[in-house]
TrEMBL record:
It comes from Glycine soja (Wild soybean). The keyword Metal-binding applies. This is gibberellin 3beta-dioxygenase. Belongs to the iron/ascorbate-dependent oxidoreductase family. GA3OX subfamily. PANTHER family: 2-OXOGLUTARATE (2OG) AND FE(II)-DEPENDENT OXYGENASE SUPERFAMILY PROTEIN-RELATED. Its EC number is 1.14.11.15. It is an enzyme of class 1 (oxidoreductase).
């Protein structure tokens, strides 16, 4: 998947702290404490604990699913889906693989460590390099086949874990194509309007990565951060989370809203590229992860983007005399490089105008307030 690997090779991330063995830490080290005054990266918005508002839950079998998805994308930038045809047994399997991986001794996990200019392997969130404090999490990213990495982790048992990942990736690829069709339909765009969709809307050339995350129990969760606030650089991200809370999304006018795990549900995030394709109609959702004192949280993110050579720009159906294009064309490879260099200014860098005829970039105000990292982390 050259659009990912080439972008990261061109923008290596050097994290100078040693990897932590979270199980051995009885107190929160200062390097993980996010309460110092200089931590201006943290949003000022409080968590919403007073009013009960919920991220939309959408039944994919509902006859009005495209319109429901469109409303959720426009008002939230995130929603959960049910009746997605992914068997529960596959979620159990990928959780079992994640637990087996992150339960390995640190020295064993480091045998599959990610290189500074690489994407695949074990390591910290890449956005760590943009923050003065470390995040209470560890991650493992897979591009294409997991075989070489899993051979290093489980010389004898690699096959059963490879089979799980391959099956999970295939299911996510199929679901992502279905969601892409529904999200485009919610914008009035058909698969015939999208050259790389293919005749059946299968989006076969799409690039993707699988990202396994672990958020260990933390001795001082109020002062720690599992994953700092960021948007995804994807078209869309499909997230499976275990039964432990922690994910929060920023809702305009409400603050941070929890996205509790939903049995059999999947969280769908609008990414930066879909924000661009929608000509600013669908916001790329700002989200973060908090940790807790007693439970380990796992999540699995499927990061979905266009083929390497496809330029994403505001769709022609969403551009006209009264609504000019707000962004220039950009490939995922180029955009990842831009975000790696400019961090929270990436959308601004590809925007043609901040305001044309009263049209504002939905994400711009957020990006001015917060440092937003490019994502292989959720």
């Amino acid at each position: 998947m050259p659009s990912l690997s080439e972008a990261f090779r061109g923008h290596p991330v050097y994290l100078h702290h040693k990897h932590s063995d979270f199980n051995s830490l009885q107190e929160l080290p200062d390097s993980y404490s996010w309460t110092q005054p200089h931590d201006h990266h943290l949003p000022n918005y409080p968590s919403n604990n007073k009013t009960k508002i919920f991220v939309p839950v959408i039944d994919l079998n509902h006859p009005n699913a495209p319109n429901l998805i469109g409303h959720a994308c426009k008002t939230w930038g995130v929603f959960q889906v049910v009746n997605h045809d992914i068997p529960m047994s596959l979620f159990s399997d990928i959780q079992r693989a994640s637990l087996a991986l992150f339960s390995l001794p640190l020295h064993q996990k480091l045998k599959a460590a990610r290189s500074p200019d690489g994407v695949s392997g074990y390591g910290r969130a890449r956005i760590s390099s943009f923050f003065p404090k470390l995040m209470w999490s560890e991650c493992f990213t897979i591009l294409d086949s997991p075989l070489d990495l899993f051979l290093k982790l489980w010389p004898q048992d690699y096959a059963k874990y490879c089979d799980i990942v391959v099956e999970y990736e295939a299911a996510m690829k199929k679901l992502a194509a279905k969601l892409m069709c529904l999200m485009l339909a919610s914008l009035g765009i058909t698969k015939e309007d999208t050259k790389w969709a293919g005749p059946k809307g299968e989006f076969n050339g799409a690039c993707a990565a699988l990202h396994l995350n672990s958020y260990p129990s933390c001795p001082d969760p109020d002062r720690a951060m599992g994953l700092a606030a960021h948007t995804d650089s994807t078209l869309l991200t499909i997230l499976h989370q275990n039964n432990v809370n922690g994910l929060q999304v920023l809702k305009e006018g409400e603050g941070w809203v929890a996205v509790p795990p939903l049995h059999g549900g999947l969280v769908i995030n609008v990414g930066d590229l879909l924000h661009i394709l929608s000509n600013g109609l669908y916001p790329s959702v700002l989200h973060r992860v908090r940790v807790n004192r007693t439970q380990q949280r796992f999540s699995v993110a499927y990061l979905y983007g266009p083929p390497a050579n496809v330029q994403i720009s505001p769709h022609v159906k969403l551009v006209g005399p009264t609504r000019p294009a707000l962004y220039r064309p950009v490939t995922w490879n180029e955009y990842l490089g831009t975000k790696a260099n400019l961090f929270n200014k990436a959308l601004s860098a590809v925007r043609l105008s901040a305001s044309i005829n009263g049209l504002f970039d939905i994400n711009e105000d957020q990006n001015n307030d917060f440092q937003v990292g490019f994502n292989l982390d959720i």
